[in-house]
Specification:
By secondary structure, the protein is an alpha/beta fold. Helix content is 34%, strand content 22%. The chain folds into four domains: 178 residues, Rossmann fold (3-Layer(aba) Sandwich), CATH 3.40.50; 68 residues, no CATH class; 186 residues, Molybdenum Cofactor Biosythetic Enzyme, Chain A, CATH 3.40.980; 69 residues, Alpha-Beta Plaits (2-Layer Sandwich), CATH 3.30.70.
């Protein structure tokens, strides 16, 4: 069988492992259900093309294993194939689907109804109990699915069989190119994920030149360097770009400069609570946030425990603009800013590396292997980062995106509004923050507002004498932060005035100097 032979002769050990696991799932399904009770959903895309040939190989090996065709007789492909034809499908997809059916002699049922209605009609007409699907982790429909998953409530009852659930974009193309099987021509024109004609365009990341007629030329899909961006072409054709960018749900025009974005920081780690580790990164993070116009409103320390991390992230991410978990040495810091979540640290093999699992629990999703992230870890750790039980490469399922930057050894991990950084000290935090700022225009990670500016004043007044006048100044300047502290009990009272309006800060500082006889300090 040509598919099995091509994989066996390949030097790609990971592809061999993926192939063997997928074939095992197929053979297991064929042992549980008769051929008449299974079907294969084919849509002409790359994933279902891979699944078609895995089914051909799996069925062949299943029949050979039963010694039904040991004499070399050709084994036909008897599994019922269903194709949902639509007026919004690309003509190239239609042509490829019908050509494939002809080449491999598929028993293809053409369904011209929506998916749910079509399945209801199909299951009424045939005794189908299981359907093979080309679903992969990262697909919108993949969250919560296993290799064998019953259909969702409200749908016709059948078993969803997902042989390539744990395959990455790289695995899909490694299989297609290794086996030299035909695939839809759109993938050679820069399309990396194909939906309908209304919501799919070539992936701009593969654009490499323009013709004399100002048309773009695209590299083929298998040259996409980052498989996480395969759905970057899923945008509506003809949609014009808005005049102002949108990030975190807010328009980035001049109005955002005056908006106050607030952040919370949660330190997660028993070492901080024990006093073993002194947290040096939190002040740096506060200053970085202030430099882009964000105020920190909440700081807490949580136990180094999955439930504790999950509870804090869940509580704060629903009320803030951003959340960020950090790690200092063996402790973690969660930084929560309204709408986005940043996390650095907690990715590793140690028992204390629980941050990512805590985030997964906060969002109610499971941890699942991430092939793209495993590739990066393998480059760093070599053969110590292999195998299906590689917990370091387990990320929250269905909500994870990798953020790449040339200055980063390992990409940052984004889970919806949570970004997981990998810094473990102040210098690494500085580098990752700079990378986040660089990535902001393309990923909308942070809304940059006017930075906070401040003045510090010193007075020899006692706390009792300063209390009432300071309260009056706070009422007079409600748009500013006015606070006071002492560096020592016998030292001067330091008054801080902070805000975004330089003229207002100067006016308040002058008023304080007149009232208290203060002097400005650096």
């Amino acid at each position: 069988m040509e598919i099995d032979k091509a994989i066996r002769e390949s030097d790609d050990t990971r592809l061999k492992t993926k192939y063997n696991n997928a074939v095992y799932v197929i053979q297991r399904a064929l042992a549980l259900y008769s051929v008449e009770e299974v079907a294969f959903s084919f849509n002409g895309g790359k994933d279902s093309t891979v699944l078609l040939h895995l089914l051909r190989a799996g069925h062949y090996l299943h029949e050979v294993g039963k010694n039904l065709s040991g004499d070399g007789t050709e084994i036909t492909f008897p599994i019922r194939t269903i194709y949902f034809e639509s007026s919004s499908v690309f003509p190239e997809i239609n042509s490829f689907t019908y050509d494939t059916a002809s080449i491999y002699k598929l028993q293809m049922d053409i369904i011209r109804l929506d998916f749910k209605s079509g399945l209801e009609a199909l299951l009424k007409a045939h005794p189908i109990r299981a359907i093979f699907l080309g679903v992969r982790i990262g697909d919108p429909t993949a969250v919560g699915q296993e290799q064998f998953s019953p259909s969702s409530p409200g749908w016709p009852a059948f078993m969803r069989v997902n042989p390539i659930l744990d395959w990455s974009y790289r695995d899909v193309w490694a299989f297609l190119l290794t086996c030299k099987v035909p695939y839809c021509s759109l993938y050679d024109q820069g399309y990396t994920s194909i939906g309908s004609i209304h919501d799919t365009v070539p992936n701009a990341l593969l654009c490499h030149s323009k013709t004399n007629s100002n048309e773009h030329n695209y590299k083929p899909a298998y040259l996409l360097p980052d498989g996480r961006l395969e759905r970057a072409g899923r945008v509506k054709k003809g949609t014009s770009q808005p005049s102002t960018a949108t990030s975190n749900g807010f328009k980035q025009d001049d109005s955002h400069l005056k908006r106050n974005f607030t952040a919370s920081i949660i330190a997660v780690g028993d070492e901080i609570l024990f006093g073993t580790v002194e947290d040096r990164m939190m002040p740096i993070l506060c200053r970085k946030l202030h430099s882009v116009g964000w105020a920190v409103s909440h700081i807490a320390v949580s136990r180094n425990d999955i439930d504790s991390v999950a509870d804090e992230v869940e509580r704060l991410e629903s009320t803030c603009d951003m959340v960020n978990l950090l790690q200092y040495e063996s402790a973690f810091i969660v930084f929560v800013v309204c709408g986005e979540v940043f996390i650095y640290g907690g990715v590793g093999p140690l028992p204390s590396d629980l941050t990512v699992a805590g985030v997964a629990k906060a969002f109610g999703v499971r941890m699942a292997p991430d092939e793209e992230f495993e590739e990066y870890l393998r480059h760093i750790l070599g053969e110590r980062c292999t195998g299906d039980r590689n917990e370091m490469a387990q990320l929250p399922e269905g909500i994870t995106e990798l953020l790449h930057h040339e200055k980063l050894r390992v990409p940052l991990i984004k889970c919806q509004n949570v970004i997981i950084l990998t810094a473990t000290n102040a210098s690494e935090l500085e580098n990752e923050w700079d990378c986040l700022i660089d990535l902001m225009p393309t990923n909308g990670l942070l809304v940059i507002s006017e930075p906070f500016i401040s003045k510090r004043l010193a007075t020899t007044l006692s706390d009792v004498d300063a209390a009432q006048p300071l309260s009056e100044m706070c009422c007079k300047f409600p748009d500013l932060y006015i606070g006071a502290y002492r560096e020592s009990r016998g030292g001067s009272l330091i008054i801080t005035v902070k805000g975004k309006d330089k003229s207002r800060i100067s006016t308040a500082a002058d008023a304080l100097c007149n009232k208290f006889g203060c002097k400005e300090i650096e």
